[in-house]
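note to self: dont lose this again. the chain is below, predicted strucutre after it. 248 aa total, dont forget to put it in the shared folder this time
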Amino acid sequence: MSERLRIFVGFEGTLTSVDMTRRMVEEFGDERLLAQFEVWKRDCCSVPGGGTVEVAKPLLRSLCDSISTANLDHFVDCQSVDPTFNDFACFCADRSIDVSVLSDGFDYVAGRILRNHGLGTLRVFANALTFEENGNGSNRAVVSFPHDDEDCRACTLCKRNVVVSQSAEDELIVYIGSSYSDCCVVRYADVVFARNRLQTFCQQENITHHVFVTFADVRHKIEQLRSRKRLQKRREAEANRQTLFRAG
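---
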């Protein structure tokens, strides 16, 4: 039985109380971008016959076209994280458990929020947002997608690929999430903690999961499972990972 854990945490609506990309669209975008955002998020779990990544990438680029670093920093610095997450992160660090944060938003946003709350050492996987000087004293936003997948038609960041590629064979994968973009990846996780939309998805798809409200609940359940020696790989998830590896 494996008890070497590797934990992945969704950012939007899980580590933060709100979907940060949605908040950015509401703050800096318009009704057209908000409508496109809703289509993208709605189809993240299942995209029959096509995809929404063609909507999502232009949407995210358009969103950032008119954002200055000063305005974005001010917006980001007003955001908070789950008040129980710092204790959970310390719990994991004390036990040498690796924790990574996955966001289908921007690394600039997630990284700054984490640093603001003393969590800057956590690894973040997200869409890339940088700012380049235009030469006239202003900055130009540059958006790229280093973790997308050409076979995924729904997500700009393939959480499945990140989780599988960043985990060793002898590690037990724990995933903690709540949103649409977490639906695909939980099929490949051994232990799933879910709430909100992800909880509904797991119930519909008969994916074994633990319901949580705060990260204190997650910590308690992990301690409980460890003490009872019930932390083990989920057969369906292991089979899905093996199938993915064989497919190359």
